[in-house]
């Protein structure tokens, strides 16, 4: 499928969904919409992903099948400045794929345009209607289950999940990602956005995903939020208990000491945070933090190597930046 990605004013640093699609999706990206960097190319900002022109608006994008909303503000709200681009996409006959909490299919203008032009409005965060509470059975699957967890939101959990899957497949192992958030769902083509489910059903939704993927030998479950996050700890705990993982990979941003957007809350040191994850996991699955992942994008190669070595020493387990370096030692640790 040929897609354009909307990432206005956030690309690439705060456009996690856009970057995830560029790096891991099979879709052909024909353009990125970003008012701030229009006229550049993706390769001017991001190495080692598929390249595409950056344009100011949907009207400037080449022909495509869909427009993907590639950013998600806190709370998942729709920014009304995006409306002309969504309107233009629908008028061109393009589907619109969104990971927002604001469902575009419930927007009267967009729903009317979609009907008129034969388009689909796909709200990937909309949960199934038949969810239920967890039965506590995810631990019974034969697959080895590895969950990525983090010290904050946007610390690289989704990236770590797909990098580990790819590293495992390169070894000839039967590995799959279990997507629990909008970006993972868009890349993998299936999943449930756990942060949109009813709280009582969140662990059950995670359990369902693990059991649906249990025909694979290794499952890498995409984590969400952070256990000590003042706003998003609930979804983290639900995934941790619902997945009943065998192993945890702890993801962190080097030099990141306070919760983003909640700076009065300090992030515990890595080993203390890893211990917290293990303590909360203990009564349900007993998973341990067996490896660490860093996002060193903002560091020089030398600084990145030093940060990885320090992080591994702090945690007492192997660590890496899976994009900048390889994931072999971490994969060995979780297997």
Describe this structure in words.
With 335 residues, this protein is α/β, with parallel strands linked by helices. The chain has two domains: 122 residues, NAD(P)-binding Rossmann-like Domain (Rossmann fold), CATH 3.40.50.720; 197 residues, P-loop containing nucleotide triphosphate hydrolases (Rossmann fold). It is 32% helix and 18% strand. The protein contains ten helices and 14 strands. The strands form three sheets. Strands 3-2-1-4-5-6 form a six-stranded parallel sheet, with helices on both faces. Helix 6 packs across helix 7. The model has no long low-confidence stretch (mean pLDDT 96).
Tell me the structural class: alpha/beta
Q: In CATH's first tier, which class of the largest domain applies?
A: Alpha Beta
Helix content: 25-40%
Task: Give the strand tally.
Answer: 14
Q: How many structural domains are formed by the residues?
A: 2
Order of SSEs: EHEEEHEHEEHEHHEHEEEHEHEH
CATH topology of the largest domain: Rossmann fold
Task: Sketch the major β-sheet.
Answer: 6 strands, parallel
Distance between the termini: 34 Å
Strand content: 15-25%
Secondary structure topology:
Layout: E1 2-6, H1 16-24, E2 28-33, E3 54-55, E4 66-69, H2 83-91, E5 95-98, H3 108-117, E6 121-123, E7 144-150, H4 157-170, E8 175-178, H5 182-188, H6 199-212, E9 218-221, H7 233-243, E10 247-252, E11 258-259, E12 262-266, H8 270-281, E13 288-294, H9 301-315, E14 319-320, H10 328-334
Parallel strand pairs: 1-2, 1-4, 2-3, 4-5, 5-6, 7-9, 7-10, 8-9, 10-13, 13-14
Antiparallel strand pairs: 11-12
């Amino acid at each position: 499928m040929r897609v354009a990605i909307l990432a206005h004013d956030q690309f690439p640093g705060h456009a996690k969904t856009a970057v995830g699609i560029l790096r891991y999706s099979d879709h052909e990206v024909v353009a990125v919409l970003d008012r701030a960097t229009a006229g550049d190319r993706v390769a001017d900002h991001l190495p080692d992903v598929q390249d595409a022109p950056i344009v100011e608006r949907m009207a400037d994008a080449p022909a495509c099948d869909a427009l993907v909303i590639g950013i998600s503000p806190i709370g998942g709200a729709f920014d009304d400045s995006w409306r002309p681009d969504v309107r233009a996409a629908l008028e061109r006959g393009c589907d619109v794929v969104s990971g927002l909490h604001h469902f575009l299919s419930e927007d009267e203008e967009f729903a009317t345009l979609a009907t008129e032009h034969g388009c689909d409005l796909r709200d990937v965060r909309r949960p199934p209607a038949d969810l239920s509470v967890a039965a506590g059975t995810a631990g019974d699957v034969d697959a080895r289950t590895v969950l990525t967890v983090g010290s904050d939101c946007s610390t690289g959990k989704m990236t770590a999940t797909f990098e580990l899957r790819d590293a495992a497949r390169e070894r000839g192992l039967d590995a799959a990602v279990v997507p629990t958030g909008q970006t993972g769902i868009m890349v993998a083509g299936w999943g449930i956005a756990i942060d949109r489910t009813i709280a009582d059903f969140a662990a059950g939704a995670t359990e369902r995903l693990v059991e649906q993927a249990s025909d694979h030998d290794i499952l890498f479950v995409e984590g969400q939020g952070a256990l000590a996050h003042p706003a998003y700890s609930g979804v983290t705990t639900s995934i941790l208990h619902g997945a009943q993982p065998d192993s945890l990979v702890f993801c962190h941003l080097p030099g990141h000491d306070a919760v983003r957007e909640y700076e009065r809350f300090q992030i515990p040191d890595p080993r203390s945070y890893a211990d917290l994850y293990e303590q909360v996991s203990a009564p349900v699955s007993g998973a341990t933090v067996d490896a660490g992942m860093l996002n060193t994008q903002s560091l020089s190669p030398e600084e990145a190597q030093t940060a990885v070595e320090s992080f591994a020493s702090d945690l007492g387990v192997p660590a890496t930046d899976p994009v900048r370096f390889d994931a072999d030692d971490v994969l060995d640790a979780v297997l």
